[in-house]
Amino acid sequence: MNFEKRNFMGIELDVLVGHPDHDLLFVAQQVARAAGLKDPSESVRHERLKRQAGMQLAALRPLIELNSCSLPTDAQGRRIRSTSVLFAEAEVYSMLLRGHAPQSEPFRKWVTEEVLPSIRKTGKYNAEESSNPIAVAIMDELKCLRGEIAELRQELQAKTFTLAAPAVEPSPYEGQPGVALCDPAGFDVRT
Questions:
Q1: Largest CB tally within 10 Å, which of 32, 59, 79, 91?
Q2: How much is the pTM?
Q3: Residue 74 placed within a domain
Q4: In a domain, 72, yes or no
Q5: Where in the sequence is the domain holding 13, given as residue range(s)?
Q6: Closest C-alpha among 92, 120, 122 to residue 107
Q7: Is residue 19 a contact partner of residue 25, using CB atoms and an 8 Å limit?
Q8: 4-10: long-range pairs with CB below 8 Å, 24+
């Protein structure tokens, strides 16, 4: 488990990856600030009360210490506080859709004008058919990841070799009557 800087829909955020229950956990106040919400702290508090969302970083301390994870720092070089709240993806999407920042506008527009109508009409969203830059970027990243996976599979197959099982030859004594080397009491009968 560790924190990574991730570009999420054009917004750079600190993301906790490797949590056993969540693929990604985001620092909630960073998300609120990036979404352009007026009072990020109050927005996070409101979201937590309204949806019972998020978890405090302090609750994850044992996992973080176990994995010797370093905490992210802000622009002034200060570590995030243990009282900082982390949101899962669903809460991040909710907050980005509520925000009014220019950075989150392309995401809102893409979700509300393309993704949701497509799901309503067809029951699915196919990013390959989209001309939206966000969808195109997602598909390009997905293609790169698929290519990397294919390369890794080939590399793994090249490094993995199968041991041929030795051919089993029949014993020259197979099918011949056995000779007792000791009697039932365990005494040697050869002498």
A1: 32
A2: 0.56
A3: yes
A4: yes
A5: 2-99
A6: 92
A7: yes
A8: 5/72, 8/92, 9/96, 9/104, 9/106, 9/107, 9/134, 10/103, 10/106, 10/107, 10/134
Q: Which pairs count as long-range contacts for 135-140, CB under 8 Å and 24+ apart, including other chains?
A: 135/110
Amino acid at position 79, single letter: R
150, exposed or middle or buried, with CB in 10 Å at 0-12, 13-18, 19+?
exposed
- Per-residue pLDDT of the chain in tens (191 residues, 90 and over written 9): 677 777 766 667 788 887 777 778 888 888 888 778 888 888 888 877 777 777 777 777 666 554 556 666 666 666 777 778 888 888 888 887 877 777 777 778 888 888 888 888 888 877 777 777 777 777 777 888 888 899 988 888 887 766 566 677 877 777 777 666 656 665 555 55
Q: Is residue 156 part of a domain?
A: no
Query: Residue 172 falls within a domain, yes or no?
Result: no
**CA–CA separation, 162 and 120 (whole Å):** 50
